[in-house]
Amino acid sequence: MRRLLLSFFILGFLCFSIIFFSSWTYGESKTKASCITGSCHAQMGKEKYVHGPVAVMDCFFCHKEIGKHKFAPIKEVRSLCYNCHDPVDTKNAVHQPVKEGNCTKCHNPHQSPNKFMLISYGAELCFKCHARNSVEGKFLHGPVAVGDCTACHGVHQGDYPKLLAIPAKDLCYTCHTEKKDAFTKKKVVHKPVYENCLLCHNVHAANFAFLLKNEGKSLLCYDCHRKMKDQIANVKIAHKALQGEKGCLACHLPHATDFPKILAKEPMALCLSCHDRSYGAGKRAIVNIKQVIAEGKFKHGPIRENDCSSCHEPHGSDNFQMLRKYFPLLFYTSFKEENYALCFSCHQRTLALDRKTTTLTGFRNGDDNLHFVHVNKVDKGRTCRACHEPHANNNPNHVRNAVPFGAWQIPINYKKTVDGGSCAPGCHREYSYSRKNPVKYQ
Fold first, then answer.
1. Where are the domains of the chain?
2. Helices 177-184 and 168-175, axial angle in degrees (round to 10)
3. Which site among 117, 139, 225, 432 is 20 to 30 Å from 306 CA-CA?
4. pTM score
5. Residue 403: how many CB atoms within 10 A of its CB?
6. In this structure, are residues 344 and 399 in contact, taking their beta carbons and an 8 Å threshold?
7. pLDDT tens for residues 47-96?
8. Residue 49: beta bridge partners?
C-alpha cells in the first residue's frame, strides 16, 4: 500500500514538472520572438492605453510578414480595423476620416496616452483638421470652452448633419432643459425656436452675448425682417423705444410669449409701461396716456379693445404721432377724404359727405348733418380732434372739454340734452341742436 501511494506521488510530481516547465519555456520563447523585445520597438506597449494585439504581442495579426523582417504595406486600413471592430459608416452622416477609411487619422494603431487610442486629446485632435478660428470669439459655448466637442457631435457617424445624434433644436434642449417648457408651452413661439436655434445663435463662439450671430437688439432681427429694417430706417416719425438701448427687445421677447407678435406683455399694458408719464414739451408734448385712459369714463373703441396699434404704427410712421394713416396735424384743414384716411378706416366717410341724414349721426339739427357743417369746407374745415378726444374722457362721444388752439385751450362747453345738445366754444356763440325739433338759426 505504501509503495502504491509513493508511486502515485512520483507520477503526479512528474506531470506537474512537465506542464510547468513546458509553459515557462513557451512563454520565454514567445517573448523572445516578439517585435516588442527587440531594440527597434522597445517602447511599444508601454503607454497607458495599448491596442489589443500589441498588448498580447501579436504583431502579425495586423502586419503580414512577406520576408525576413519585411512586411506588406497596409493598404486597406478600414478592412483591417473592421476585422475586429463593428462598422461605423452606416448612418446618414459619416465623419470624413471614416468615410475615407482612414482610422489612423485620429487613432494610433499601437498605443496612446489617450483613451480610445486617440493621437491627441479632445478639441486638440479636432483642430488637426478643423480650423481653430471657427471656435474663437468673445463669447464661447460651454462645451467649446472646455474642449468637449463630443458633447454635441458624434465622432464616427450620426443620423443628422454635423454628426449630431438628434436634431439640432432638440440637442440644445438636452442641456438647456429649463428652456424647453419655457418656450414650447407658450401661445406664441418665434419661428426660429421651433425650426432651428442656429438661425439666431452660433454654436461654437461669437462676439455677441448669448452667442448671437449679430448685435441682438436690432441688427440680428433685420437679417430676417428686412422690410421692417427699411421701414424703421426711413420713417419720418421714429418710435423712440426702438432707438434706445434695447432696440426691438424693448417691446418683443426673442423666443416665446403668451401675447401676439411675441410682445413682452399684453399689447396695451406694454405701451402703457412707457406711456405712464409725460414726454417732451410744447408742440411735441406727449401726455400721460395711462392717466388719461384711467380717468376717462368713455373710451375710444381701440382703447376698449386694448389695441393701440389700430391707430398707431409701433415701428414708426410718416404721420405725426406715429399714426398708421394720414390725419390732419392742424386745427383746420380743407376737406378731402384722404385727409381723414385714419378715421375713415373705422368710421363711415358719409359722416362728412352727406349734407342731410337721419341715421348716420346723432349730431344733427333735424336732418342737417352737423358733422358735414363743421368738417366739409373748402377752407377751415374743423378736424375731428377740434371737438373729440381720441383716447378717453368723461363726456359722451369723447367730446372734449377744451381743445388746443395754439397756446390757447379753447373751451367747448358742451351740454347734452335728451334729443340733442349745445356748445358755446371760443370759436362761435352758443348754438343748440335738436334732432326732433330743429333749432332755427339766425
1. 42-165, 171-324, 325-442
2. 120
3. 225
4. 0.77
5. 22
6. no
7. 999 999 999 888 888 988 888 878 888 888 999 999 999 999 999 999 99
8. 112
